[in-house]
Amino acid sequence: MSSLAPPRLAAALSTDQRDRLMKCARPVDFPEGTRLFEEGGPAQHFWILRTGTVTLDVRVPGRRPAVIDTVNAGELLGWSWLFAPYRWHFGAEAMTRVRAYEFDAVTVRMMMDADPGLGSALGHLVGQMLAGRLVAARTRLLDLYAPHGSGL
Fold first, then answer.
1. DSSP H or E segment with residue 143
2. Which of 26, 42, 77, 145 is deepest in the core (most CB within 10 A)?
3. Among 18-27, 66-75, 109-118, 139-148, where is mean pLDDT lowest?
4. Residue-level pLDDT at 150
5. SS3 call for 72
6. Mean of the per-residue pLDDT values for the chain?
7. What is the rounded (10 degree) CA torsion for 24, 29, 35, 39?
8. Above 80 in pLDDT, residue 143?
9. What percent of the chain has pLDDT over 70?
10. Degrees (nearest 5) of the Cα angle 13, 19, 22?
């Protein structure tokens, strides 16, 4: 788990921006064990989790995917939708039943282009999320690979 507080939509966007974004949200429900996306696949959507937990993982040749972080209720799932070539950098699986709001990436990118304030706010939200994921991945890698007793 990352040491940075996860960014929250309510804190990142104005009421008007949230309302406009939520107009293009679609409620979805994923049973436990559902693969939401695969590393390298097309990033056409992103989600805000309402309930449940999703694990993020990376492929490891000859092994099961290695879990590097978790996404919980209230958090944004997905950032690859925002950056060309729009391919997932990780995989994701519902660890529990997940209820979420799903957003079409093309629609949201068009909204961001049309409204620089919304674009800036969402860009900052995704940037904060990326910083948290980076810290979590670093911590996880140190837990897995740092020599025992090294002080790291």
1. helix 116-145
2. 77
3. 139-148
4. 56
5. strand
6. 87
7. 20
8. no
9. 89
10. 100
Biggest CA-to-CA distance, the chain: 53
Cα 79 from Cα 53, distance rounded (Å): 17
CA distance 19 to 99: 19
Report how far residue 85's alpha carbon sits from residue 43's, in angstroms, rounded to the nearest whole number. Answer: 9
Residue 17's φ and ψ, nearest 5 degrees, are: -65, -45
Sequence letter at residue 89: H
Dist. CA 82–CA 128, nearest whole Å: 14
DSSP category for residue 81: G
Question: How confident is the model at residue 104, as a pLDDT?
Answer: 97
Three-class SS of 86-126 = CECCCEEEECCCEEEEEEEHHHHHHHHHHCHHHHHHHHHHH
3-class DSSP assignment, residue 82: helix
Q: At what angle do helices 116-145 and 15-22 cross, to 10 degrees?
A: 80
The reported pTM is 0.84
Direct distance between the N- and C-terminal alpha carbons of the chain, in angstroms, rounded to an integer? 16
pLDDT score, position 149: 58
